[in-house]
Amino acid sequence: MTLANNKKPLGVVLINLGTPDEPTRPAIKRYLAEFLSDPRVVNIPRIIWLPILHLLILTLRPKHLVHKYKLIWGTYDGPIRNISKALARRAQRLLGNDSGTVVKAAMTYGKPSLVKVLSNMRDEGIDDFLFIPLYPQYATSTTAAAHDKICNALALPEDAQLPFVPDYHEQPAYIHALNCSIAPYRRQIDAGTKLIFSFHGIPVAHVKGGDPYPLQCERTAQLVV
């Protein structure tokens, strides 16, 4: 695999975390089993974690999540998959079908899997890729996990150098987009309403191990302000 050139099509892969196939107990269980088995997500020693996962979490948790997934499920699919595919379609329209670039959405866990998406694109003659995880801030449990999946799918070592965007937490266009999303509420903010930034959490152990995620979240918030 090489970086893109003008003679070959470029495959842009937008990577999101994933979602169950449907809002049912078996589908949720399959998804959680794949997601929570990844050492990047839970880095407790396998001999301790896997019995807990299979005997407790996968036995009890899925049934409690069915109602919650049904509440957010769209007419045809789950929101993460719907939005990711819509984003890929919009990017494709902006680039144009004759641009030599093909944009697809893929999931680290669940469907459409990175393995399947990459296989389909390679069948179409695409061998040059740009991988963009849809995580503005880098975290080992999300961004690094996606990198691992790509390497596995392409039969590459985990430390392979890929055309890969690790983060864009201070990219001007991203900061501008966040400000645009806040703009309709500017009058309330000017009147004294507080604006709270909420980011997904990661384990303290990851932070102590040097994960840059918290600092990048703070930087994003500072730039938006």
Can you characterise this structure?
With 225 residues, this protein is mainly α. It contains nine helices and three strands, in the order βαααβαβααααα. The protein has helices at residues 25-36, 46-72, 79-95, 114-123, 140-153, 172-182, 186-190, 204-208, 213-224; strands spanning 10-19, 101-110, 128-133. Strands 2-1-3 form a three-stranded parallel sheet, sandwiched between helices. Helix 4 (114-123) packs across helix 5. The chain is globular, with a radius of gyration of 19 Å. The N and C termini lie far apart (41 Å).
Q: Classify the helix fraction into a percent range.
A: 40-55%
Unreliable residue stretches = 1-5
Strand content: 5-15%
End-to-end distance, in Å?
Answer: 41 Å
Shape: globular
Category from helices, strands and their pairing = mainly alpha
Number of strands: 3
| Rg from Cα | 19 Å
Strand order of the largest sheet: 2-1-3
Q: How many helix segments?
A: 9
Characterize the largest beta sheet: strand count, sense, and whether it forms a barrel: 3 strands, parallel
Average pLDDT for all residues: 93
The string of secondary-structure elements, in order, is EHHHEHEHHHHH
